[in-house]
Amino acid sequence: MLSDDEKPNYETFRDCLEGLVIQKLAIRPAKTRRRRPAKGSKNAIKPVEVSKEAEEEPTGNDAAELGEFVDVQLRRKHSESEANVNADSLTTKYLATEIFTSLAPELRTLSYAAVQNDAALRAKYEEPLPTSTLESILSPLPISVVDSLSSYGLLPATADLSRFLGPVLSDYVTSTTTALQEYAPQTRRASACEICDRDWIPLTYHHLIPRAVHAKVLKRGWHEEWELNKVAWLCRACHSMVHGIASNEELAKEWFSVERLREREDVQKWAGWAGRVRWKTR
């Protein structure tokens, strides 16, 4: 049973595993080779000459039969494709659950915040992951995982498990320990205001922990130093509203995330009103 802290990481791990599973289970249509009759053979099938008019104007019955045949084939192909996708999804879910629940607790709850607060943890899962670390991570996996990978045709008998799952684990570690967008404003720009959701007006970024109180925040231990650059992209109206509902100290201590801000009743009412306003800046 996954805890609430583990569920987001499980979904991330499953996404990382899914790409590999789908790639390995991809069905490639077999190439068919036409048999050519031997040159000069008496049994060779001679081509039938068809008039140009017959090629351009098929009979009504032929056209109808061809259309029905194509429709049936398309439906069959769609059904087979859908079945393959469902099978791949079930395979991925089963394997992801088996593997993820066998990982160490620190790996199941790995996050950007966790590695920032624990230097040893950060060093342990620093990319690229060495072979010794991969083997240590995978050693607790039950034998059923290897059997399942083999039965699904994902893991050849001669393949090394750490080499096979290494890219998946590396993608997972990178995804969970990379700085969130709110910590790296220079790397992205939101497409809409994170309070009122309007996407047609200019945005500014709001320091969720106001810069004016950074020294006090660190002195009193409200947040870690690496958290000071957290930002939210807001329109000018919402930016002003946020600074109007609380002091810098209150914002830093209580309202230091978009999620917390949006939980406030006054912010929800403002967002509902502002979202309906269609003004534009000059």
From TrEMBL:
Domain of life: Eukaryota
Basic residues bias (residue ranges): 30-39
Region called Disordered, residue ranges: 30-63
Annotated protein name in UniProt: HNH domain-containing protein
Lineage of the species this protein comes from: Eukaryota, Fungi, Dikarya, Ascomycota, Pezizomycotina
